[in-house]
Predict the structure.
Amino acid sequence: MKMTLSRLRYKASLNKLDYEELSNGNTIDVNTKLFDFYYGYYKQSLSQSISSNAFDYLKDKVTIIARHDDRFVTAMNDQNYTITLPNAETYNVTSINPDYEVNGYDTIVLSLVGGSSDDTTSDSATNTDTNNNG
């Protein structure tokens, strides 16, 4: 992929879910930041956008590009890894197209943690019908 560093103008962080034990013996989930990285948004062509919207695949998903790092590949296979974007939303790595070349760029599809694309039912259609009827 032909890319320039000037496209990587946003800063995000890769985190790993960890557990912290409190003084009372309870444990809580905490996100431990592994590293910060710069990324850019990946633009889809019109045909990619239409086909992805037809299958509702990219709902609550963001596609980004970043300099290659093997930890992104690890993050795809482990739901304990998350990526936090500047909008303070947390995402899991859904898929990745790694570029193992020197100075390569990875194309990474992120899925919103707890987003509606994780659900198997569509509540928005039910809410719309309810609002229109009453």
In short: Strands lie at 10-21, 27-41, 61-67, 81-84, 90-97, 105-112. The chain has three helices and six strands. Residues 83 and 99 are 19 Å apart (CA to CA). Residues 123-133 form the longest helix (11 residues).
